Amino acid sequence: MKVLILSQYFWPETFRINDVAQGLHEQGHQVEVLTGFPNYPSGQFQAGYAPRGPARDALGKIGIHRVPLLARGHGRGGRLLLNYLSFAVSAAAFGPFLLRRPDVILVFEPSPVTVGLPAALLRRIFRTPVVFWVQDLWPESLVATGSLRNRRALALVSRMVSWIYRHCDLLLVQSRAFSRSLVDHGVSLSRIEYLPNSAEAFYRPVELPADAPERRLVPQDGVMNLMFAGNLGVSQDLETLVEAAAELRHEPVRWLILGDGRQRPWLEEEIRRRDLQGCVQLLGSHPADTMPRFFALADVLLVSLKDNPAFRATIPSKLQSYLACGRPVLAALNGEGARVTRDAGAGLTVPAERPDELARAVREFIRLSPAEREEMGECGRRYFLRNFERQYLLRQLVELLGSVAARGITKEHTA
């Protein structure tokens, strides 16, 4: 099967679609990728990538076609909108000339949903069906992050989303709770399938040698290591983390933060302003495949999101990574992410945007014995293997892509 993956983000940017592409290739399918030049999350193009025009690249034997786009810069306002639109326009303009006709187009859609615009054009030109994997809900995510508040603009975005969904032959949702939004945008349940995210194969429990370099960054000195890993953005509710850390500044807990993002300067300033350097430490960004090594040194892994309908419906992809590594989880969020944590028996959950509740849960983790915390982690690992295991979900994806490719474009959705 010839699969075209359409995604604004791809390797060397660290998104889960990288592993999906490699997994499809491992199973014998021919994979090509249409993407932009890497500039996430820093907002600047990575070294060695100069977007003067379309370029060829490769990840192993996976062919990558890169089209020029405007870098996201600070990731705010008009600049971010131009980043989104520039990729949509560029992919639509260059894609038909760069690509061979695939059997099926798989669209990976974390924000922005505008990746669906070139997908609709390629669908029409190649007469190839589109499978659209919804990772973020629009316009709900725009409201949740405060990116857009104007009601008329939101109504226009909502109509665009409905148009994009109409030009897809199958829509995959990473959370069952997403289905309601899709139905509200005119998608029939018969065109919706649940396919959650997995985690790369390197996410697994590991044992570190005594001289592992990660040990120099994560002390093992009797203080509980509470670790947050991932994007430092508006959605992650870092305000609640800082408030709870300030309340617990004299408790035996160390807040370790791995990652980068638009909120990092704010976080650095808050740590200085509140004099939290002794209990909150920023460890910076590290390659994704080193994350299990850091997780192995954490006593508890933290996932957090703001309280918003879009985030309540979301299963944060880092949760699968945490569960896969067999570490106990503290989930400071509402909705599906909290449900998964509870169902797995993987740790403790507290309501989103409640620093007092987060502090209370941290104190409870401090009181637990290492054996009790390890049992939570083992429960989470077992739940991951039952529900999110990589090969199992890849087989499901292949079956869905194959059935859509065999069926072809569905006439009732052709504009």
From TrEMBL:
<dbReference type="InterPro" id="IPR028098">
    <property type="entry name" value="Glyco_trans_4-like_N"/>
</dbReference>
<dbReference type="Pfam" id="PF13692">
    <property type="entry name" value="Glyco_trans_1_4"/>
</dbReference>
<feature type="domain" description="Glycosyltransferase subfamily 4-like N-terminal">
    <location>
        <begin position="16"/>
        <end position="197"/>
    </location>
</feature>
<protein>
    <submittedName>
        <fullName>Glycosyltransferase family 4 protein</fullName>
    </submittedName>
</protein>
<dbReference type="Pfam" id="PF13579">
    <property type="entry name" value="Glyco_trans_4_4"/>
</dbReference>
